[in-house]
Specification:
The chain is an alpha+beta fold. Helices cover 47% and strands 23% of the residues. The strands form five sheets. It has an eight-stranded mixed beta barrel, surrounded by five helices. Strands 2-1-5-4-3 form a five-stranded antiparallel beta sheet. A five-stranded antiparallel beta sheet has the order 7-6-10-9-8. Helix 1 packs across helix 2, helix 13 crosses helix 14 and helix 20 packs parallel to helix 21. It starts with 7 loop residues before the first helix and ends in an 8-residue tail after the last helix. Bound molecules: ligand C2E and calcium ion (2 copies). The site of one calcium ion has 4 residues, from loops. The site of ligand C2E has 20 residues, from strand 19, helix 17, helix 18 and strand 23.
């Protein structure tokens, strides 16, 4: 529709004008038809007008709604709107602005906006307003503001100058609360500053691929960001922790979100260093880790300091040996352990004789030098697990662990170490430009249980050390009288055995060895000691001592020579010339590098027939350097000497070595023979030994045969030869012939 008439009069005029235009003659007279038509048209117009009114009403409704929406928007907008007078008084404010400033909209009206701006920010605000009023606009500004109740907040203002309906200048302002953003920015700045900290920081994704590292990371590890990013932290792995360690670490992170602890890592230059590491998982809303942040500090220095402190606290600075505190600590553990394992331990006080003299005459620095050398000599004398400590001055303590269960044997062990210590400490010392000699007194006490306290033990060892000093220095004394007695007796025994070898107090007894037919084929030579006061002493008493002290070497040599001499003599007697002599050879003797030559020399000196000499070896010999043993056996075999394996079945019997040895005979150990009839096990073993020996082509001899029943049973097993009281005790040479004549029983085939 084109422009609409405004009212009825105008409409009527418009209609008349239209008619006049259509009929120019007599047009000013209205016919009834015309009137009718006019009325008709008027009605149409009226309807049109009503429609127009309805449209207007609807438009008004629209407008009202739009206005309401506007006010909603105005009030509920996330930003504050204020209209200010040119003087900065609030003329109007929306709801958000009211909330921001902490007063109702009505209460805000008339308030100067400046009262909501922090004093420090006022100059900025005035400059801003001035710019607005001068030029109508100004770039947004951020201001520290304060609510009515005093709560500070950060405001962001955008404003423009305008004219109100009366032509007055007003400022329309949009105000936003940007406190949260400012805080976030500050946090970011803090985080960034933290990232630049002295701690090494590494950020990885959920797959532990490194995304970022900080400069401290590079400073500590040596890896630049370019080298680290894209790798995993395995780059730093030192290899000192096993998979279990890392698995525990990651499961802790999975369970609690973080882990911290000490860890050894490797720098780019290969150096392994300790660090204190904290790993934190960054999780998304559903709790899934999205990143890991590891921060660490290099604690090498702290660790070194800790170690230094421990060293000072537990070690003697001069010698580096444990000090009294550490000794007491270890002694406590040793007491507990010895109670558990029932093994004896020994505590030794070692004190240098005349240390004061060297300190006084040569000076303290020389004295220190001496102590350092003593410390290292002492340490060389003990086994791993034993402790050498310095209590101060020239007082050293040696703690020996894991000695024998039997206290007499333990005392012997302790004494032997004590002797070694004395020998070591008696050697000359090279001090600054001079040679110095010293001796040491040693006090010993044994411990096997906790009944005696630590202090008491130390006191005992100390006391016996003073006794050792009283006894003339360079001596060793036990605290326990019975130990002292045992050790003293041993010492005496050793001295007199030494003398016995030299003075010819040893002699040989012979025990017959017979075949199944009862024929004597040879004898075993068994050494005896004819002691001037004690009479005949059994080898069971002195052979072990001779083994320990090394006296077995001259002793064994003497037996060998005596046996060869005997063989040479028997060669001249028709009844004896076919007899062999079996000589026991100790492992230590056989292991002598010149053993083959020794035997050869003995044979040559005496002129004995090597075919008549049989050497009895024990399995203990075969434990080490088997190739060397075999080579020696082969060399002796080449001379014509025979071999028997003694005490067979009690040792480390192994078929593999048996096959390689050039043996002639196995001797079933007497322990199996003793209970042959009563213990089925022993019978089975004896039978097995016979079978084994035969399968290797060896003769099998049973020793310790005492009864005809044993003999019979052994014969039934196929045993080839016998030795034992049943056929004759070991006897002196003179009685040998008689025992031969009195042979009581000849087992049948
Ligand atoms: P062995 O080599 O096993 O010697 C056999 C031991 O059993 C001898 O003890 C002997 O007297 C004893 N015996 C012999 N027949 C019987 C018997 O029917 N019943 C019982 N119960 N015992 C019997 P002996 O002479 O006291 O020698 C003990 C050990 O001393 C020897 O055991 C041997 O290992 C060692 N020994 C003896 N003489 C020497 C030697 O000259 N050199 C070396 N290295 N050790 C020797
Ligand atoms: Ca023997
Ligand atoms: Ca034996």
């Amino acid at each position: 529709m084109t422009s609409r008439p405004q009212n009825l009069r105008q409409t009527a005029e418009a209609v008349a004008a239209e008619r006049a235009a259509r009929s120019p003659a007599g047009a000013d007279r209205l016919s009834p038809n015309d009137t009718q038509a006019m009325l008709q048209e008027l009605r149409v117009h009226q309807i049109e007008l009503e429609m127009q009114n309805e449209e207007l009403r609807l438009a008004q409704v629209d407008l009202d709604a739009a206005r309401a929406r506007y006010f909603d928007l105005y009030d509920l907008a996330p930003v504050g709107y204020c209209t200010l007078s040119a003087q900065g008084l609030i003329l109007q404010a929306n709801l958000t602005a009211a909330t921001q400033l902490g007063l109702s909209r009505q209460a805000l009206v008339g308030q100067p906006i400046s009262r909501f701006i922090l004093a420090a920010e006022q100059p900025t605000y005035y400059l801003y307003c001035k710019k607005l009023l001068d030029s109508g606009a100004a770039p947004p500004c951020e201001l520290g503001m304060v609510k009515h109740d005093g709560t500070p907040f950060w405001g962001h203002m955008v404003a423009s100058a305008a004219q109100d309906e009366h032509g007055a200048t007003v400022l329309r302002m949009v105000l936003s609360d940007i406190t949260a953003r400012r805080l976030a920015q500050a946090e970011l700045r803090i985080a960034a500053a933290a990232f630049e900290s002295q701690q090494g920081i590494v950020v990885t994704d959920a797959a532990r691929v490194i995304l970022r590292v900080n400069p401290a990371f590079t400073a500590i590890t040596g890896y630049t960001p370019e080298e680290a990013v894209g790798q995993t932290p395995r780059l730093l792995s030192s290899g000192r922790h096993d998979a279990v360690f890392y698995a525990a670490m990651w499961s802790a992170i999975a369970a609690s979100g973080s882990w911290h602890g000490e860890i050894w890592n490797r720098r780019k230059n290969g150096e392994v260093f300790p660090q204190w590491l904290t790993i934190t998982a960054v999780q998304d809303n559903s709790g899934r880790p999205t990143h890991y942040v590891g921060s660490f500090v290099d604690i090498s220095l702290r660790k070194a300091a800790e170690e230094q402190i421990t060293k000072l606290a537990f070690y003697d600075p001069l010698t580096g040996l444990p000090n009294r505190r550490l000794l007491v600590d270890r002694l406590e553990q040793a007491l507990a352990a010895s109670q558990r394992h029932r093994r004896q331990g020994a505590l030794m006080f070692v004190d240098l004789d005349n240390f004061k003299t060297i300190n006084d005459t040569l000076g303290h620095s020389q004295g220190d030098l001496l102590l350092v050398q003593v410390a290292s000599r002492l340490s060389a004398c003990v086994r791993e697990g034993d402790t050498v400590a310095r209590l101060g001055g020239d007082e050293f303590v040696v703690m020996l662990l894991d000695l024998c269960e039997d206290s007499a044997a333990a005392a012997a062990q302790a004494e032997s170490v004590g002797k070694q210590i004395q020998t070591a400490l008696n050697r000359a010392y090279q001090l600054d430009g001079q040679t110095y000699h010293s001796t040491a007194s040693i006090g010993v006490t044994l411990f096997a249980d906790q009944k005696v306290g630590i202090e008491e033990l130390l006191k005992r060892a100390d006391l016996s050390m003073y006794e050792a000093k009283d006894a003339g220095r360079n001596t060793l004394r036990f605290f326990e009288p019975q130990m002292q007695a045992a050790v003293t007796a041993r010492g005496e025994l050793e001295a007199s055995l030494r003398l016995a070898i030299k003075e010819g107090q040893l002699l040989l007894h012979y025990q017959s060895q017979v075949t199944v037919g009862g024929q004597r084929t040879g004898v075993e030579a068994l050494v005896r000691w004819l002691h001037p006061e004690r009479g005949l002493v059994s080898p069971r008493e002195f052979i072990p001592l001779a083994e320990e002290t090394g006296l077995i070497l001259p002793l064994g040599q003497w037996v060998l020579d005596a046996a060869c001499a005997q063989l040479a003599l028997w060669a001249l007697l028709p009844e004896m010339q076919n007899l062999t002599i079996a000589v026991n050879v100790s492992a230590r003797q056989f292991q002598q590098s010149h053993f083959v030559e020794d035997v050869q020399a003995a044979l040559q000196r005496s002129g004995a027939n090597p075919q008549r000499l049989k050497l009895e070896l024990t399995e203990s010999l075969l434990v080490k350097k088997l190739d060397d043993v075999i080579a020696k056996m082969i060399a002796l075999k080449a001379l014509g000497v025979g071999f028997s394996l003694d005490d067979f079945g009690t040792g480390y019997s192994s078929l593999s070595y048996l096959k390689r040895l050039p043996l002639d005979q196995l001797k079933i150990d007497q322990s199996f023979v003793r209970d042959l009839l009563s213990d089925p096990n022993d019978a089975v073993i004896a039978r097995a030994i016979v079978a084994l020996g035969h399968s290797l082509g060896l003769q099998v001899l049973a020793e310790g045969v005492e009864t005809p029943e044993q003999c019979e049973m052994l014969a039934s097993m196929g045993c080839d030869a016998y030795q034992g009281y049943y056929f004759g005790h070991p006897v002196a040479l003179a009685n040998l012939a008689a025992s031969l004549l009195n042979m009581p029983y000849s087992p049948r085939q």
